[in-house]
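for the writeup, i need someone to sanity check this before i put it in the appendix. the sequnce is what the collaborator sent (i think, or maybe the updated version? ugh). structure was predicted straight from it, no edits. if anything looks off just tell me and ill rerun, i have time this weekend
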Amino acid sequence: MAGTTRWRQRPAVAAILLALPMLAVADNPAKGEGNPTTAVIAMHSPAELSGNYAGYFATFSHWPLPKGDLVLRVPTDELGCSEYPTDVAPKPGILGSAAPTWASVVTRGTCTFVQKALMAQKAGAVGVIVVSNDQTVQIMGAGNDTRDSDSVNIFVIGVDQYLGGRFRNATLHADKVGQDPPAMSISPYVSSLMNISEFVLICMATALVALGAFFSTADVTVAQEPGNFATALAPPEEEVLEVDSYLAVGFCAVGSCFLVFLFYFMHYMIYVIIFCFCVGGFSCISQFGAICLNHHFPSLRNKFVQIPIPMVDPLMHAEVIAGVPALAIVISWVCLRNTPYGWPLQDIIGAGFLCWLQRTLRLPNIRIASLLLSAMFFFDIFWVFISPLFFHESVMVRVATGGGTGESVPMLLRIPALGDPFGNDRLLGFGDIALPGLLVSCLRRHDLLSRRPLTKGYFLPALIGYFIGLNVTIAALIMMRMGQPALLYLVPGTLGTTVVLSSCRGELNLLWDGIPAKDQVFEDSAEEDSEYKDGV
């Protein structure tokens, strides 16, 4: 049945390999938390806009903010650079008997931010919302209008193109059909430097890297007793794909092409990605379940069920039984994926993906690991930070956040932000776990084959380096208010730590070639084994 087993793994492995290059990014939808320039835009109506959204105060925005509800208006000049018509202000009867306070929604361009604010203020607005021309929102400054900015007595907030477009369209539609304009309130965003959700996400990712390394090295017989559960998890040699230099470079090249393709065709491909996630998730979870059942109930191994589907070989009873909860998890996620209840199911599927990947892919030595991680290091930086120069926005961040489709790319760990007014999830791409995880797995294999204790090997230092790197990633995310190429911080934390430590120990050449270290600990153990066999 070895051929049958290999056939069943291919959907899972294919889905994982396609997912990783596009998701080596950490993102936080509530970017800029802890920064006083962040605003909470609480939309009260219409119903389809209800919720809290992030905006960013201009440096010259006036304080204190107006209290109570206000409505949105769109001037005839959508840029807001010329005087407003006299009828732009809302009439009495909206939100009460008196004329309500209002804010203007204008788009960026032509005149300065200060001029836009002064024009809205002259017309009687208590604030102005400036819509960016892309998904990046810059903190608006006064520029050369420093003197005029002292005359601004209203709040000035910037929002991204997608959100601003929704505000504009809802306001124009309300005017067209004679409905009340959208109602909202403004407040500053106040949060601790680090939400507890980020710490939970960091701990979860670190635990998955360690767990994946455990699965990856389950076949190391020098460390495992025959017949125990760890040995049952060991993959057959025909299922293991050893990464070579060509695959490492090709992984980066194919990933780049796939990213660009998704950038332009995300509206069509998002459902293909979701389908691959479901198929791969079902395969990984059911296979892990079948391994557990076969280990604890050996009688299930030799019982097969014929499935009346062409090209599908008979399935073991254990696979059928394990497939039931796996299918239930996947279907439940599909139904709940866009609700606040979908994140645990997505994380369960993701954990299966990541552990199966580290079990299936193997780095033979630090030379290949350095090539792969170095290539992905620059890959990550280019597609997050440099790609906006060519594509007008970050390709990686746009793809990772769904590309404006209304759907979220599922190849992410999700944790809801506790106590956050935006109600968004904290996100970490699978690539930021799997790619460093392959290195950590390689190091654990080296430690086991070298018979190194945990404190004298390389596995634990690399795992600690990964944990620290993730903390630095989240700190950079908070301070820079934009999606971060997490490998920028994780590669130095893992690979950098390993290279420095092995150089200090004089063992870099052994790691480089994947040769176990035959140090005194190993030699003493070998002598003891020899004496035992000789009856001494």
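The CA atoms of residues 8 and 454 lie 35 Å apart. The mean pLDDT is 82.
thx in advance!!
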